[in-house]
Amino acid sequence: MPIRQLSETMINQIAAGEVIERPASVVKELVENALDAGASRVEVVTAGGGLNLIRVGDDGSGISESELELAVSRHCTSKLSTDIHDIRSLGFRGEALPSIGSVSRLTIRSRTAASGSAAEIGIEGGDVSAVRPAAANKGTSVEVRDLFFATPARLKFMKGERAETTAISDIVKRIAIAFPAVRFTVSGPDRTTLELPASDDSPDGQLTRIAQVMGGEFPENSIAIDAVRENVRLTGHVSIPSYSRANALQQYAYVNGRPVRDKLIASAIRGAYADVLPRDRNAVTVLFLTLDPATVDVNVHPAKADVRFRDPGLVRGLIVGSIRQALADAGVRSATSGAAAMMGAFRPGASAYAHPGPANGHRSFNPGFRAAATTGFDAARSPYRPLDGGFGESPQSAFDTGPIASADARAGQSELPEELLQAQLGAARAQVHENYIVAQTQDSLIIVDQHAAHERLVYEALKNALHARPVPAQMLLLPEIVDLPEDDVSRLAAHSDMLRRFGLGVERFGRGAIAVRETPSMLGETNVAQLVRDLADEIADNDTTETLKERLDKIAATMACHGSVRSGRRLRPEEMNALLRQMEATPGSGTCNHGRPTYIELKLADIERLFGRK
Hints:
18 helices; alpha+beta; globular; 26 strands; 614 residues; nine-stranded mixed β-sheet
């Protein structure tokens, strides 16, 4: 077949295949155009999951009548200067509108502030109609009907209407977090509306928008981040370790205001939480990276979802270091979700296995209940007997019908020192079931899992001792030779000093091979070749040697688990209080090595609500 020039329609449809994957992609491009136009209000209307109708309206600067034809032509844009490395807008390619118009029926109606009337232009399957007068307010309205009608094969790959509608809402939420001063609304045919009122660009306004998108629980269970390293600034909020999710969908990342899904950033977040979250749990984060546009390439993905940093090691180090420092500075915090679950468990009928009581609220009959054996009625012990001293107060002994059940251990019956009650985890009052410490603060009740808490304390102590000096190494009787690509050999050789500090002695062994002469003593017998290959892969991806450190930390975690206070051990009052004070002084002690919470806090106001006092 001879080489020939493709038609303009075919070119636009190929571009649409890269940029327009689904209806949510269309919404993303149109909303970004609205924001680049300086809109303070963006309204999205959909029908049929966006396949039948997408309408995006804004109050931005608008498009003049003379520029409407250029707006629907490929590679025509007002957002890009002569320098491709100085991109300061969300869009810049000039491909979105002609690509959308090549696979749908597109209508653009716009009016500028200086114009006395509006104008509109249409595209149907790539065929552009003439510009004509229209009636509209200042701003732009873009209407997309019958998406993919010109490429019906694409419709076979679409999901159901509900799934596509959800994807549209998700993309609007993701964009909205970065623009708190803009009002967003999304409405569909079922009359459900997502409305995100405008606030302002201040930190408080940003947090208000985050709460609108992610729920009111997140601000209460998050830590603020604000760090700078070599002209790269990181701000945002990250969740405390005890507040996590089963997937990473609640991780939002932005580079110069652009929402991205970047592997480097996701990897850095996992690395920052490696010590405090299990592998099957994910942190909840909203992170904003601000840096010189010349140091980041946003032109590496058709949908602009990925970016490439000039110095990825700097960005990764900033994210990991800032989050770890913030978690350490935050001290001991428990998630409010734990207290909410505890409140739910205490409420009547909350248990899935509870037998529902009668509607009148009285306790229902329990066939397993047996009355205590009695030896007959004793009038002298009856609390309802006539008062012994006339109208005087009845002696309290009348109510002492038997021994009071005691906790496993009590932390003293005398008045507690005020300084203990003012401490973050309060003063120990009792130990129950030989595993849980009950503590009291001035305004809350705290229940501590003694094994989980001590496990974290021992783990942190082992880690500090492990990394405070070079890790002891064991010399191999015969060096192990590992064959690797020359690039991996060069990377490992460049990091040999850091690896030696962790007990791994490596050196070049000719071309395409590494000789391993020492391994960390803590690892015992290990698959040296696999370890070296894993390290080479990690250095290639992230320019770090975290794999070896993580293996050593995992051994320390196992040692901590076996060396900590076991469940079933009774603690003396001074031991319980000492454990509480150590938890307050140890970073990350709100969760154990496996990511489970070490304590739950129930506020006094919540307890009073349980008993109907408030």
